[in-house]
Amino acid sequence: MTASLSLGWPAPAKLNLFLHINGRRPDGYHELQTLFQFVEHCDYLDFKVVNKPTLTLHSNLAGVVADSDNLILKAAKSLQAHTNCQQGAEIWLDKRLPMGGGLGGGSSDAATTLVALNQLWGTGLPSGELAKIGLTLGADVPVFINGFSAFAEGVGEKLINVEPTEPWYLVLIPQVHVSTAEVFQDAELPRNTPKLDLGTLMSSPWQNDCQTLVAKRHPQVAKTLGWLLEYAPSRMTGTGACVFGQFEQEHEAKDVLAKLPASIQGFVAKGANISPLTLRLAQC
Ligand SMILES: C[C@@](CO)(OP(=O)(O)O)[C@H](O)COP(=O)(O)OP(=O)(O)OC[C@H]1O[C@@H](n2ccc(N)nc2=O)[C@H](O)[C@@H]1O
Ligand SMILES: Nc1ncnc2c1ncn2[C@@H]1O[C@H](COP(=O)(O)OP(=O)(O)O)[C@@H](O)[C@H]1O
């Protein structure tokens, strides 16, 4: 290990505890009201700062690094461009979160890269500036930079910190890919949930406006959600495909995980209002 190696930067998953679609903007994007909470199940990134502006990414999953569109490299390049930074980095990604499952892993990796390199390069951008850069990479990046559970409006960039309870979750991963773009293009997607104030939303039953449609288009999602609903209040996160059930105690969630048919994968993790990324940054 050398002094320039900085290890164990977490990139947590998020859940959308509710997700309402309030309308469609002229540019085609949808106006949302959603509640984000982190879960203590993370990708991990290690960084080695180098004194030239090269960026290299290694990963335990070959497919992740092969893609030059990788959000980690995009995030690092954007930070270099915004700050004129002449330093670079060698980055190692330990990918543990399923990709494209509505858990926000790619956005979280991007946020962790921005926060960590801003610290390690000494570029000193305030987190509001990092969030603006993050938003150009993905709608969910700002909430991961914000680092606190948040109610979000717009396309997800207007954030108000909130403190929902921190239950244990059993998250199930249906083996099907759900395209976010396809969900938002679907004619049957309900788009007219009225905008409500935060107090009303927090005290009303929580729902995901994409869930009925995604369950109809992807029987695997319907089957997995149906199974989980036998044991706990459960919903889909984001545009799917992952679903989560909520439990008061860790052992209750683990007992249900133990009953999971071999054909479905899942994990148990605690909800967290303070992001593990924020806690890691505080150690610097
Ligand atoms: C809806 C959420 C809730 O967390 O879904 P998940 O991705 O987590 O499942 C996110 O905000 C998703 O944000 P993000 O993941 O950045 O979306 P993108 O991949 O950029 O979106 C793919 C496509 O979906 C459509 N799209 C996306 C977000 C939005 N608010 N309105 C849209 O209409 C756009 O056509 C866009 O080109
Ligand atoms: N570092 C990354 N990790 C995961 N996905 C990435 C990454 N960089 C780019 N992507 C792309 O982003 C897409 C969305 O990934 P992810 O954030 O995990 O899902 P979701 O938006 O459904 O929560 C992936 O299908 C992949 O093509």
Could you explain the architecture of this structure?
InterPro entries: GHMP_kinase_C_dom (IPR013750), GHMP_kinase_C_sf (IPR036554), GHMP_kinase_N_dom (IPR006204), IspE (IPR004424), Ribosomal_Su5_D2-typ_SF (IPR020568), Ribsml_uS5_D2-typ_fold_subgr (IPR014721). By secondary structure, the protein is an alpha+beta fold. The chain folds into two domains: 5-162, Ribosomal Protein S5, domain 2; 168-272, Alpha-Beta Plaits, CATH 3.30.70. 33% of the residues lie in helices and 30% in strands. The chain is built from eleven helices and ten strands. The protein has helices at residues 62-66, 71-83, 105-120, 127-135, 141-146, 180-185, 198-203, 211-217, 219-229, 250-258, 276-282; strands spanning 5-24, 30-50, 55-59, 88-94, 150-154, 158-161, 168-173, 234-236, 243-247, 265-272. Strands 1, 2, 3, 4, 5, 6, 7, 8, 9 and 10 form a ten-stranded mixed β-sheet that branches. α2 packs parallel to α3, α3 crosses α4 (127-135) and α8 (211-217) crosses α9 (219-229). The protein is globular and about 55 Å long. It starts with a strand and ends with a helix. The model has no long low-confidence stretch (mean pLDDT 95). Bound molecules: 4-diphosphocytidyl-2-C-methyl-D-erythritol 2-phosphate and adenosine-5'-diphosphate. Adenosine-5'-diphosphate binds at residues 64, 69-72, 99-107, 109, 180, 238.
